[in-house]
Amino acid sequence: TDLAHIRNFSIVAHIDHGKSTLADRLIQSTNTVAERDMKEQLLDSMDIERERGITIKANTVRIDYVAQNGETYVLNLIDTPGHVDFAYEVSRSMRAVEGSLLVVDSTQGVEAQTLANVYQAIDANHEIVPVLNKIDLPASEPERVKEQIEDVIGIDASDAMLVSAKSGIGIPETLEAIVQRLPAPKGDRAAPLKAMLVDSWYDSYLGVIVLVRIMDGVLKKNDRVKFMSNGTIHQVDRIGVFRPAMQPVDELGPGEIGFITASIKQVRDTRVGDTITHEKKGADTPLPGFKPSQPVVFCGLFPVDSAEFEDLRDAIEKLALNDASFSFEMETSAALGFGFRCGFLGLLHLEVIRDRIEREYNIDLITTAPSVIYHIYMRDGELIELHNPADMPDLSKVDHLEEPRIKATILVPDEYLGDVLKLCQDRRGIQMDLTYAGTRAMVVYDLPLNEVVFDFYDRLKSVTKGYASFDYQLTGYRQDNLVKMSILVNDEPVDALSTMVHRDRAEMRGRAMCEKLKDLIPRHMFKIPIQAAIGGKVIARETLAALRKDVTAKCYGGDATRKRKLLDKQKAGKKKMRQFGKVDIPQEAFISALKMD
Ligand code: GTP
Questions:
Q1: CA 104 to ligand 1 center in whole angstroms
Q2: Measured at the alpha carbon of residue 242, what is the angle toward residues 241 and 248, in degrees to the nearest 5?
């Protein structure tokens, strides 16, 4: 296809504003898929994504569209991930296209994620077409939302498309706007090959599938190609496009988006943002701005039943094959035995992986406290990257400690602003900016990532009744007064509950954790002290009283089935507990103990 007849675009939207519905509708109305093959939410293929209503892996589709001028255009849609954890992947896929549809729910307005993603689109020099969705709803306020887009984002919204992705209103106009308003891609067919690796994933039949955008040159079947970030050479064995099913093509030229397979074994061998060129007569310099995405949140995953360790290894290895940003290494914990220290892009990423292990592989897990990477400057000048508070070196050898900080953007209706400011303040935040757009406030905070990885997002949702939206970016490292807090249960340290805390908050945190654990740990036949300590010094303490009566005693005289039920329930509960010395600690204690309310 010649460049003038190609349009490449992505859809930028906040969760639930209708990105998938719009994509489905664009595909359907151009007859890309036969009606009967049209599954709902075609682009969100994974179960978890569907269940949680979020799009994780970027997907793509090529649509043929006959425009009003009678000419046929190729429209390539790249579906970008919608969550903050995947900001880097979003930024790469933005570089692969020239324009964006900015979808805003016209009953809701602009949200923090819309902002973050639209700024990435602006950074990538996109032409942006605003689309006001859900105009079929009585609560739709297109004029107000147009104004808001202009005020908050600063782009012209006077020509915004008025759309109902659900009922199909405005879809033909939107297709026409894609052709008329978005620029055609540029590229040089005669130049050495430069293809951007936009995404990759594992397919059990075909192996690793690599999504590419050709910038310059031509890519053909059987070409020998080089991945410039690591110099590996592969032979292309399949080349094609998504419609959205895979369809082979002879070649991909400048401006085109498609896939290749090349006997690549693992997704880990491919890096989003990498440049692919020919082995011979290849490009000298890669496309600018490549950096592999790095895990920022770490936690331990341990099987509840230690006999399932090998199954867990198997599950983790399989998941890692398909996810280059998920890292793992074996870990032994005095308390939990054998498990894995795993690295994630963020908390959502952590939750998704943990859920998949539990659900798809049927392994009950204990998840230890999530931690960020601390930089520890030793007195002898060495710099240690600490991923696990349990590995904290001897304090006398430590000069100082730095922690990662983020810039958080929160959009919230006026009436909840006070609560949001308090929450940020409580989490050691420094206010950077506060502005208004209509009745909504936009606050920008500088926060320590460690205060956010845990339950910040949950707390934010609860204090704002779900009306706030949140987005963040890592900004760098800063020194602070941080210490390792250990938890002792029945005088035994439980390493999996160690956390890094700010010195000024250690007492408060320690007390809260001991109280929580006291509620979470079932009573035993003996008294159990629960303590928080820094170094050797106990800073908080609770005592769990001993159990006296038989649990079935209260069913005394009751019928036998009830009694059996109670015992069964106890047994089921037992399975999800681990023994620490003589004490059984239930699975949920490891996560719940850290939540602050
Ligand atoms: P993520 O995939 O989670 O990012 O969400 P999304 O932005 O793709 O939203 P999705 O398309 O899943 O739509 C969210 C909800 O809004 C669904 O329940 C849709 O049925 C509904 N919806 C989408 N478009 C419209 C519309 O035009 N009108 C109405 N009434 N509902 C819509």
A1: 11
A2: 40
pLDDT tens column, 536-567? 899 999 999 887 655 555 545 555 666 666 55
Give which of 81, 97, 60 is closest to 241, Cα–Cα: 60
Model confidence, pTM:
0.70
Cβ 352 under 6 angstroms from ligand 1: no
Q: Determine the Cα–Cα distance for residues 437 and 147; give it in Å rounded to an integer.
A: 9
Give backbone dihedrals phi and psi of 237, rounded to 5 degrees, phi first. Answer: -105, -15
Which residue's alpha carbon is at the smallest distance from atom 13 of ligand 1? 18
Residue nearest to atom 4 of ligand 1 (CA): 15
Q: List pLDDT tens digits, range 471-486.
A: 788 889 999 999 999 9
**pLDDT by residue (tens digit) across 127-173?**
999 999 999 999 999 999 999 899 888 899 999 999 999 999 999 99
Is residue 57 within 6 Å of ligand 1 at its C-beta? no
d(CA 263, CA 563): 59
CA–centroid distance, residue 367 to ligand 1 (Å): 33
Asked whether this complex has an ipTM greater than 0.90, the answer is: yes
Among protein residues, the one whose CA lies closest to atom 3 of ligand 1: 54
Distance 82 CA to ligand 1 centre (A): 13
